[in-house]
Amino acid sequence: MGIGNIFKAFQPKDKVFFTLFEEVADTLVEMSNTFHEGLKDFDINDDSLLKKMSEYEHKNDNTTHKIYTELSKNFITPFDREDIHHLTSALDDIADYMYASSKYIFLYKSPKNNSFAELTLLIQKACLEIRNAIINLKDFKNIQAVKESTIKINSYENLADDVLSNAMIQLFETGDAINVIKVSQVLSYMEKVTDKAEDVANVIDSIIIKYS
């Protein structure tokens, strides 16, 4: 019997960790959808988008706490305890940085920038692939699909780097120092979301190398 099959035999029957990971992934998808759509008609004097993002962030915090609680209670876990901790932390970071992005847009009354939509679309796509990866990681049932998702997440992060670089060049060319400060901060936080998504992909890649 291979190590993967041996490991599966000792997995918790209630699959609580995967249920919670999928809950987190669903929240991230919903949050990224709200962020992307909300910026299309964003009013800098309307805090409704910020409130929605805050609600998602708190919801994700609650699920994250449940995972850590289960980790302290369960001796047998679906994969290495340290990997569960790393994956949970990385997923939580995505929600934190998405919320931070929306917060700074509102607090700075940041003017619209075409790159906002490009970055939120990449964030949205990355979150969808994270959910696909987690769903297919369950029981290690479709490792190829997991790998395809992590590759896409990495490519989205690379694209986000390019978007940020081009946006910063255009921003500095405006010569508006205040605008540069406001917009660059937001762009930086948005790009950081894709960095955190890549962190999730890297943890998942590490897990499938160990146990598939």
Automatic annotation (TrEMBL):
Protein family membership: Belongs to the UPF0111 family.
Cross-referenced InterPro entries: PhoU-like_sf (IPR038078), Put_Phosphate_transp_reg (IPR018445), UPF0111_domain (IPR052912)
Protein name in UniProt: Phosphate transport regulator
Source species, domain of life: Bacteria
Pfam families: PhoU_div
